[in-house]
Amino acid sequence: VKRIRRAIDDASEEVTLAFPPDRPDEVADELRAAVDRGVLVLLLLTGVDGPAADLTQWFPGVATAARTWGQPMPSMLTVDGRTGVVAPAEMVARTNSGTQAIVFSQQQLGPVIVGSFLGNYWPAAAEAVMTDPAPLPASYTNFRHAVLHSELHRRSSDAVVAHVSGRWTDSGDPVDATGEVVDVSQGLVTPANNEFPVQHSLTIEANGERVTVGGKGAFVEDIEADRVTLTPPDDLDAEADRDAAASDGDA
Questions:
Q1: pTM for this predicted structure
Q2: d(Cα 124, Cα 119) in Å, to the nearest integer?
Q3: How far apart are CA 147 and CA 164, in angstroms?
């Protein structure tokens, strides 16, 4: 538990955590602090006996999104996709369990654990808490965080514009693209609308063309994003006016 706390304290972008429901107070302060500094926190309470509503009073401020699942599973933590812990559930519940945990700090292993969390466990769990759409403008270096808030704004009938910095996946050349988000594929918010559990992508309409955007390691999408800034559509109109004024000046 001390290792889990320290790791969460070091998080700058993303935390995924599966934890038993009878010990959430062990890490609540660290999770709240992570949320407060803008970290995407996905929390899964496992082995939950009873409906998710019984636990909602514990959730406020602790996670960006939280789910509950009735099945027991190991405690799993990843931080920024590179460090984490995998431990038998009894290690968290008891100090003298006699079992061992795995602590890792590898960029190659982190995405595998995150993929298992999002692909195997998160879809099977019931949504208990979901954050409100973030006030705009909002910038993200964690692509899943940008996808989540893009989807929340769209479900609230709020148009949103994405300013994307990254590279073209076919050539590797740098690219900056801006356009309204016209489609989102995601599995973070219920109901999911992605084709497979770990798919998270944006489709933006830029200069009259639709372009797909993925996160780090993207190869199916057109752009691999390093940073996404979400703004209201008024910003896109203002940018178009500035471009038009510049063209008139050149003429």
A1: 0.89
A2: 9
A3: 12
